[in-house]
Design brief:
Layout (H helix, E strand, L loop, with lengths): L2 H8 L3 E12 L4 E11 L22 H15 L3 E5 L8 H6 L2 H9 L4 E2 L9 H8 L6 E2 L4 E2 L12 E6 L2 E9 L8 H4 L3 E2 L2 H15 L4 E7 L13 H7 L5 E4 L10 E4 L5 E5 L1
Length: 275
């Protein structure tokens, strides 16, 4: 199953990545392992497939098709498999208007998502509405630059999570877009937005140096790139102004990429951004 096949079958906002040839060196041998990552972003409550008359993705997408492809790949990859989401799970169809996110979380749990971050639309029923649906989510949420200290999410949404796959330590952290001007203040309440670049520098240092993670992944909902706002913080900026992030999985701008974008970080090393 190639990445393009997965994209075509599950439609925009989903992708497959195989991080291959990860060498864990010792004095005696080199053990090469591969980990496969499936990810979604900006699904926006699209439980059903797109209709036949959709101008962009006719008859594509939908949870049934997504679940089928995920299960096929999971059976082959077994232990070396991660399923992630980069935010905006909520809002976009009557399913959200009626169920308030319950259905989305239940279905993602059935598909056995490992981790997700929050998008701006995940606040559309307020932070209390998001909190009320968490019992239906059998997976965790991470967000490093949203400070939830004075909210119901304090201590629940963590900055990062470390997942071990067959001896490989994968550190995953989340970043969210600035909410002011995008989301009504009464919806996100006392949530404090912190600069994603500065937060990412701290978190990657913790994950790489303190926690000794082999791979560091950022689940980003800050946007890929803003053509009319070149100074605005985005994934491209994040890639160039930080180090030790091996992979950025992004959302928010609904950017569709046929293949990953490779950027050079502060250390002069190249790594991937995928949407």
């Amino acid at each position: 199953m190639e990445r393009r096949d997965f994209l075509q079958k599950t439609v925009a906002s989903s992708a497959l990545l195989s991080i291959g040839s990860l060498s864990l060196s010792s004095f005696t041998n080199v053990d090469t392992k591969k980990i496969t990552i499936l990810h979604t972003n900006d699904v926006h409550s699209h439980i059903d497939a797109f209709p036949p008359d959709d101008p962009r993705n006719p008859n594509m997408g939908g949870v049934t098709r997504r679940a089928s492809v995920i299960e096929q790949i999971r059976k082959r990859r077994k232990k070396m498999f991660l399923l992630l989401d980069a935010g905006d799970i909520f809002q976009g169809t009557p399913y959200f208007n009626y169920y308030g996110g319950e259905l989305e979380f239940k279905l993602m749990s059935m598909m056995q998502y490992d981790l997700a971050t929050l998008g701006n639309h995940d606040f559309d029923n307020g932070i209390d509405g998001f909190y009320a649906q968490l019992p239906h989510a059998k997976f965790d949420f991470v967000s490093a630059n949203y400070d939830f200290k004075n909210t119901v999410l304090d201590g629940i949404v963590k900055p990062y999570k470390i997942i071990v796959k067959d001896g490989i330590k994968v550190g995953i952290f989340g970043l969210g877009v600035e909410l002011e001007g995008l989301v009504d203040k009464k919806l996100y309440k006392e949530t404090v937005y912190n600069n994603p670049i500065e937060v990412a520098k701290d978190i990657t240092r913790i994950l790489k140096e303190d926690k000794k993670c082999d791979i560091v992944i950022c689940l980003s909902h800050i946007g890929f790139k803003y053509r009319n706002e070149p100074e605005r913080v985005c994934d491209i900026t994040l890639a160039k102004e930080t180090k030790d992030i091996d992979l950025i999985i992004g959302g928010h701008t609904h950017t569709f990429l046929d293949k990953p974008v490779i950027e050079t970080n502060l250390d002069g090393k190249k790594y991937l951004l995928i949407k």
